[in-house]
Amino acid sequence: MSARADVGVVGLAVMGSNLARNLARHGHTVALYNRSPEKTRALVAEHGDEGEFVPSESLEDFVASLTTPRVVISMVQAGAGTDAVVDAVADLLEPGDMVVDGGNALFGDTIRRTQALAARKLHFVGAGVSGGEEGALNGPSIMVGGSEAAYETLGPIVESIAAQVDGTPCAAHLGTDGAGHFVKMVHNGIEYADMQLIGEAYDLLRHVVGLSPAEIADVFREWNTGELDSFLIEITAEVLAHVDGATGQPFADVVLDEAGMKGTGTWTVQTALSLGTPVSGIAEAVFARALSSHRETRDAVQAAFGVSSGSATPVPDDVPGFVEAVRRALYASKIVSYAQGFDMLSAGAAEHGWDLDMGTIARIWRGGCIIRARFLDRITDAYREHPGLVSLLTAPVFHEALDGAGDAWRDVVAAAVRAGVPVPGFSAALAAFDGARRDRLPAALVQGQRDLFGAHTYRRVDREGSFHVLWGEDRREVRA
Ligand code: NAP
């Protein structure tokens, strides 16, 4: 077989086949391979006229069809599937060739694979591809790790197929080895938090204000014209306006209220715990999905204490005022949750030696991905205008929104608590904001407790050094 494809895709399930079509539509000659040949054949049969494809039914032929240095994009199941494919492809490649993992790999696996392939003089690039199947086909956001040398070859390819916003591709090299997959993981965590906050806003409007799903769809449409303008707000309105064909009921009422998850939110929280970075908004979102799926617990508690629907509470006197308060609380909570996500990016960068550019990350999230929003422009601007910004919370552009939301945020959380409508995302965000603002935190008491039961020592406000009280003796303070 003559080598004529400039890029290859292994793994032609929904993501891989759409990415391959996107590449072909942008003028690339795309080599194709899938373990089960039916998918390769189906892709060529159904979409072969969209560009140049070179299908193969053996990995050897696939590799032989690629021009050198070879660029192989793997779009297979994360974990063991990716290991199997990367190993098999690597055995057939030559020094200087490149394997790109576009799946949702755990960034630690990407670091391990990068080292293993580097020992064989092969480039390995972990690239987070966001936007689901629609994004893969029409322009995803692509968060690229690996070496700068690898990006010199890969950059033009990924930038040609990425979403474009204001003429700029939503793809960039973010850092070495696992940086791309780390950023993608945090992106997914932020997506969980965004969705949870929107869900809480809906619950408040439905069960505290008493609006119908169709009325709430109108509220979200209105919100989508302002600072909350985003893909997720837009699709929320669409879902809420949808009526179930079988029953004529609002679609939102016929869907079982048990949220699924594939694991990237959980990875984000696990990683944040080991980095010691509070991402309470993301954690509450993951836990809220978990609670929703614990049907047995929910049934038992409802049987024991009665069912709470929230709607028994009086409707606020000033409905438009309360709706606006919910909007402000949602925006303020969203700012906190993004600030936490970006804090986690900084912590990951420090831990793994990546030089992550926060403004660039926000920029490539503006298109193609699920969290795309006008809001991300403000984050990019904040980092551009204030290099070294310690927390997004302090960026002038968000200062006003947080300051202005204060009373509304508290009123909304208080109303929710009184009505028994759970708002873990709103209240965790408010607690994180309040926590950061407090002059004295009860952490001082915790340090005292730790010193008493475990001689863990403490520092003082008025002197340098570490101290310990001889709690079991005469309670003298000694230097530790
Ligand atoms: P998937 O269901 O995650 O994986 C199926 C693909 O993996 C098939 O092509 C399958 O080949 C291949 N595969 C699995 N184990 C294999 C093995 N041991 N050897 C060779 N091939 C193997 O597919 P997907 O939903 O298209 O996702 C692909 C990747 O993109 C995943 O890492 C996923 O996490 C990530 N991703 C998905 C989305 C999404 O919205 N779906 C969004 C972003 C990222 P066979 O056909 O032979 O079984």
Structure, explained:
With 480 residues, the chain is α/β, with parallel strands linked by helices. Helix content is 56%, strand content 10%. The protein contains 20 helices and 13 strands. The protein has helices at 14-25, 37-47, 59-64, 80-90, 107-118, 132-138, 148-161, 179-207, 213-223, 231-241, 251-254, 264-275, 280-293, 295-305, 319-352, 358-364, 375-385, 396-419, 424-437, 443-454, and strands spanning 7-10, 29-33, 52-55, 71-74, 98-101, 123-130, 141-144, 164-165, 168-169, 171-173, 458-459, 466-469, 477-479. Strands 3-2-1-4-5-6-7-10 form an eight-stranded mixed β-sheet, sandwiched between helices. α8 crosses α13, α12 (264-275) packs across α13 (280-293) and α16 packs antiparallel against α17 (375-385). The chain is globular and about 80 Å long. Residues 11-16, 34-36, 39, 75-78, 81, 84-85, 103-104, 129, 132-133 line the site of NADP nicotinamide-adenine-dinucleotide phosphate (NAP).
Mean pLDDT, as a whole number?
A: 96
- Strand arrangement, major sheet: 3-2-1-4-5-6-7-10
Total number of beta strands: 13
Judged by helices, strands and strand pairing, the structural class is: alpha/beta
Gyration radius, to the nearest Å? 25 Å
